Amino acid sequence: MASNTRSKTDSDRKLKIQELTETAALLELEGKDRSDYIRQKLDEWELEERLARERELALEKEKLQLEHERLKNEHELAMERERQATERAKIAQENETARTVAESQPASPASSQGSSSSSPNIPFEPFDEKSESVEVYLTRFEEVARYYSLPKDRWCFRLAQCLRGKAYEAYTKLPSYQREDFEALKEALLVQFELTSESYHKKFRGSRLERKETYVNLCDRLDKYLGKWLALSKMPETFEGLRNLILAEQLRDCLTQETRIYVNEQQVIDPSDIAIAADRYLAARRDTKTRTEDSKPQASTNRANSHQGKTNPPNHKSNQAVHPRPNTPNPTNYRSSHPPPKQWCNFHKNNSHDTKDCRSRGKPTHTLNSICNPAPSDAEALVLAAVSAQSGESPHPPSVEKALVNGRAVTCLNDTGCLVEAVVRESLVSPSDYIEETTQIQTVDLESPPKTLPMALINVESKYVRGRIKAIVMKSPAYDLILGCRYVFLGTPPYPSVSAPVLTRSQVLVEESDSLKVNTIPTEIREAQKQDPSLQKYLRFAQEGEPALGKEQFFFKTGLLYRRGKEPDACNQLVVPKPYRGQVMQTGHASSLSAHQGQSSTLNRIRFHYF
């Protein structure tokens, strides 16, 4: 087959050469022009043929791969059906054997009653936690017990006989009055193996399509998890029960961590009971907070009275700290024992004038207590850190500087106290930058639920970091970009860190290598094109504005001569003058990622942009 393909290609090539020779004769091309024309057109034809063959091979390979996947899936489905049929046949055979053994027993009433009470011939297999889950084993145990009409009061005893190891420990931990309660033993086994309502809740919410699993199997698995979650949550298995279950889940997600812990300690499951318990917890916290605030003025007064007789240097802040509040008891006695404070300037550190009368108040220090501007319509006022940016000389770099986010100039706050990686303004993030991850941040009010914010990958260029990093997206932060303690450190860095796990060898070579020295400018190329004798006819075609040879077109762009082929998707090719052709070939052969190919391959590669 390969020889036939090769012979067909050779014959097509001969026909193409003959056709090009006839065309060159019609165009009255002679000597080197004719050979160049034929070679050029022949190379273009060979390139088209090779690309067409590669496309055909890719399509055939894709078809074979799809057929292989289809056969593989059919084989796996057939094996699964065969396995299920084998299991059903095995269970049916075991049941038939057990029924035969039961029928072979004496039929007297006494023996029948004794057999029913002791049930010695029921084929209960021992539980093996390594090969079977306790959930599947309990389901099979109940089915077998119902099939043989085993009395319910005997279920717990027979189940305990089949337990081993960790499962039997759960039975021994039961109180004596529950040793015959099957439901109590069943619940203890599920708790022992961490198969509670909460575990099925997590499985239901976190299930994903597994390998070699269809969406039908995933749907069945989710249905089972939801049923177990509802059954073990002690909710009625009705529409109202399912409604209360989902409502309770959403209500718990809205609680703070402290409130959620308190509600879980109360062991309430109904949504209304959860809401009442949460309100009761918040009311108790609010009362405790109010009593603490009421006790602070008295304690402040006692501390002030205990320090009478001590002389302190005049300090405006310290004097403000001991001023009595309106609810401080005995304010008259306090003022009589403490004379009014003297004037003092915190800027000049002397008592020539007071701080409020100082002329230097136009340059105050400022403290940033939040990374977000307070807005009545937006509850995103988060306190991640208290960053103090002092004016004047400081050994540390400025906190607010200019940076680039996705190519746009923004103001950046370098916050060493911010515990998150970065925060960015929502208007600077495009929809394609968002990722599936979210983060929760506690607001100023600890009684309010955490705020869930989206995250995005953004391109950052700043003094501390350069590259693509994760950032929390907010609508109205105090600055366009806030860099946290992961990237910001005290002192000025010599160069920004690159946000990437490792530097590849190519990146290291790029950083260590010098930039290419490009001496040739467009004016030199333009003059060389005009002076090249071999390009005069192409220059004439471009000046006349008519297609050359009836197929290709030559034109001027920014003063340079370009060529466009006859193909619909052809690129604009720069016509290279003769003095620069060797340089273009050398660059295409020895440049990065060129693989140092041969002359023909290099020529085919650079012809996309050069002629």
What number of structural domains do the residues give?
A: 4
- DSSP strand (E) fraction? 5-15%
Q: What is the topology, as strand order, of the major beta sheet?
A: 3-4-9-5-8-7
- Measured on Cα atoms, how large is the radius of gyration? 42 Å
Stretches where pLDDT is under 50 for at least 5 consecutive residues are: 106-119, 297-340, 362-396, 513-519
Number of helices: 19
Task: Give the CA-based shape.
Answer: flat
Number of distinct beta strands:
13
What is the CA–CA distance across the termini? Answer: 37 Å
Structural class: alpha+beta
> What share of the residues lie within helices?
40-55%
Biggest sheet record: 6 strands, mixed, barrel
> Please, what is the average pLDDT?
73
Provide an overview of this structure.
This protein has about 600 residues and is an alpha+beta fold. The chain folds into four domains: about 1-85; about 115-265, no CATH class; about 370-510, Acid Proteases (Cathepsin D, subunit A, domain 1), CATH 2.40.70; about 520-605, Orthogonal Bundle (Endonuclease III, domain 1), CATH 1.10.340. It has 19 helices and 13 strands. A six-stranded mixed barrel has the order 3-4-9-5-8-7. Strands 11-12-13 form a three-stranded antiparallel beta sheet. Strands 1-2 form a two-stranded antiparallel sheet.
